[in-house]
Design brief:
By secondary structure, the protein is of the alpha+beta class. The protein is built from three helices and nine strands; from the N terminus they run βααββββββαββ. The chain folds into two domains: 90 residues, PH-domain like (Roll), CATH 2.30.29; 46 residues.
Length: 152
């Protein structure tokens, strides 16, 4: 990987999450369709409002969800949220299935520790896990041991 570019990795998406994420948009479309067939202008407007609200949440918090490795930083993107973590600050990466809220669409996660304390960690779920770990180890100067990375 050239060191002057950022390589992006999509988030892995668990199969069971797709129906959960699909229900709100489909329900809002069903409300709009039902209201339109009944000739209810208020129902169509309310359905459109619900659809816009759902889209706002998804595009504000969920999409795009990806992780970038640049020359000197790990970038975590989740909707409008961006976190830049200096590669030199990363001390350990370990696998986890912790279900706590995190910018990850899978429970097959990596816990990235970049300091001491609860707020100096982030859980991510790159779909190309092995490639991500290899690239992160190379760029950050970490030692790989299976699915774990550590400072030498």
């Amino acid at each position: 990987m050239a060191t002057n570019e950022t390589r992006w990795y999509r988030s892995k998406v668990d199969w069971w999450l797709m129906p959960i994420l699909g229900i709100p948009p489909l329900a809002s479309i069903a409300v709009i369709a039902q209201a339109a067939t009944e000739g209810s202008a208020f129902g169509v407007i309310a359905g459109c409002g619900i659809a816009m609200f759902v889209a706002g949440i998804y595009f504000g918090l969920v999409w795009p969800m990806s992780y970038g490795l640049g020359k000197s930083e790990l970038i975590v993107r989740s909707g409008l949220y961006r976190r830049r973590i200096p590669l030199t600050a990363i001390s350990e990466v370990s696998p986890t299935r912790n279900p706590l809220s995190s910018p990850a669409l899978s429970l097959d996660r990596l816990n990235v520790r970049f300091g001491e304390g609860m707020f100096r960690r982030v859980m991510i779920s790159p779909a190309e896990r092995d490639r991500f770990l290899d690239d992160l180890a190379d760029l950050a100067g970490l030692t790989r041991d299976g699915d774990r990375l550590r400072r030498p």
